[in-house]
Amino acid sequence: MRTPTEYELDRLLHYAPGYDPVAAKKYYEEHKHLKGRRKGQAPKIYEDDPRWNPKTMGNHRGFTREQMALQAKARKRGAIMQAIDRMEKKLKELEALIRKKEHEAASEDRKGKAKKERAAKERDKPDSAADKAEKARENKKYREKHEQELKSKEKSRDKKSGGGSSKKSGTGKKEIHELKALVTKYKGRIAVAKQKLAAL
């Protein structure tokens, strides 16, 4: 153990005379007057203060982490609810459009069917003897007049193998099918959004 220096000895001697640590502690305990602070009396700590702790004191608006988490959850719920409302509105529009298209397609089918029925009735109506004789005379005249033209048409028909004209596919039905697929897609998205909302 090293011997204390002159400076250290001087400082020790300064405190040493008449100092009793036990008596000092006893005196302190007998004469201490501690004042508790009233709630809300401490000065407010701001972010530029070194004592600022964001974990316990929150952000600059004064919100704690729990409050900020609740606010974030509320914002998320609001955003999901708005998205659901938008999708449901779009779904209603699509369903109305499908109903309109189906009505139009059905009316077109009815018109086409009525036209075909009228044409079939006209074809099936039996001709009178005079009508038959008149048609036969007209056909004979036509054949005699256009003999060469009919032969060339017949040859060109023989050359074509299965060149039948394909009927145009109904674009209305295709559109309705695509719209129904979109409706199914939106319904799925709405169901997923509602699950997310329930999970929050």
Write the layout of secondary structure elements.
Blueprint: H1 6-15, H2 21-31, H3 54-57, H4 65-124, H5 129-145, H6 147-159, H7 171-199
In words, what does this structure look like?
- With 200 residues, the chain is mainly alpha-helical.
- Helix content is 72%, strand content 0%.
- The protein contains 7 helices and no strands.
- The chain has helices spanning 6-15, 21-31, 54-57, 65-124, 129-145, 147-159, 171-199.
- Helix 4 packs antiparallel against helix 7 (171-199).
- The longest helix is centred in the middle third of the chain and has 60 residues, at 65-124.
- The radius of gyration is 50 Å and the shape is rod-shaped.
- The two termini are 69 Å apart.
- Mean pLDDT is 77; it is low at 163-169.
Low-confidence stretches: 163-169
Mean pLDDT comes to 77
User: What helical percentage do the residues reach?
Assistant: over 70%
State Rg.
50 Å
Total count of helical runs of at least 4 residues: 7
End-to-end separation in angstroms reads 69 Å
